[in-house]
Specification:
It is built from 15 helices and seven strands. It has 284 residues and is an alpha/beta fold.
Length: 284
């Protein structure tokens, strides 16, 4: 990979990391150099859950919801000492491609939660399953309207792969749309719990546990926590930078009508024949 990378197309307009186009996707150089090590060392389990996304597509919120939901027995969401109240959530759920120690994680905690920005086609077979591989892990893929993610056809291209995988492997891949998550976060939390194998009991639902998780993980709540207002996280990014508006339709404040139409055409062409269409935020 080190020998191959210099010959791949370079993009430097997405700081803080330079990107290289590899196998059809734009990825940070530092991540690509770790792909071989990930494939060689990561020992995924069938009970593992991988949270997959393209950057700026709902990664931070998905991490919080999944962590609070999966580990609610050990860490009640209403507890003052909840990890999400004292740790940046990227410490609670780490990116496997940025954390060598994670690849050797022997924790008995189940389900183990990992995050990744790698596209489905670059994930190890120990995660996706395959000939001679162990049973596949579960993958939650979140996709966002490209106009709000500001990543255009690149996001659309990767999101289409996640969508198709969820249709052919529904027990392994859960496909979420950021706009629908915003519209009904409670339904998202319950869907996540069922998919991860830790569905809510009737007593939990009646006791307001789902509501407590939604409140704890709301972007407003997370953004105002002191731990997320200061300090730095992975890749030299300040914690506060991970929390934008978190809204749908904010693209109207950044794109002209002409730019929006051009992007819509690119997305329409990319999705042609897939059976998938992004939600119109105006009708949500």
């Amino acid at each position: 990979m080190a020998e191959l990378l210099p010959s791949q197309p370079l993009e430097t307009r997405c700081p803080p990391l330079p990107l290289r186009r590899y196998n059809g996707f734009w990825l940070p150089e530092a991540v690509l150099t770790e792909v071989a090590a990930i494939h060689a060392r990561l020992q995924a389990r069938p009970s593992d859950v991988f949270l997959a996304s393209f950057p700026k597509s709902g990664t931070t919120w998905l991490k919080a919801l999944a962590f609070a939901t999966a580990h609610r027995a050990k860490h009640p969401p209403s507890g003052a000492g909840h990890p999400l109240r004292r740790m940046n959530l990227h410490e609670c759920v780490r990116f496997m491609e940025m954390d060598p120690e994670l690849r050797r994680d022997a924790s008995s905690l189940s389900p183990r939660l990992h995050a990744t920005h790698l596209p489905f086609c670059l994930l190890p077979e120990s995660i996706t399953g395959g000939e001679g591989a162990a049973p596949a892990s579960r993958i939650v893929y979140v996709c966002r309207n490209p106009k709000d993610a500001r990543l255009g056809a690149v996001l659309c291209e990767e999101g289409l792969i996640g969508w198709e995988a969820s249709l052919t492997r529904p027990k392994q891949v859960l496909f979420l749309e950021y706009e629908r998550m915003l519209h009904d976060p409670k339904a998202t939390v319950k869907k996540l719990a069922e998919f991860m194998g830790c569905g809510f009991s009737k007593e939990e639902e009646e006791g307001g546990v789902v509501d407590e998780i939604v409140k704890l993980c709301s972007l407003k709540e997370l953004k105002n926590m002191e731990v997320n207002r200061s300090g730095g996280s992975q890749a030299g990014v300040r914690n506060e930078a991970y929390f934008r508006k978190g809204s749908s339709g904010d693209w109207r404040n950044h794109l002209t009508p002409e730019m929006a139409k051009q992007l819509e055409k690119i997305v329409e062409d990319a999705l042609q024949g897939s059976g998938f269409a992004f939600v119109d935020d105006a009708i949500m």
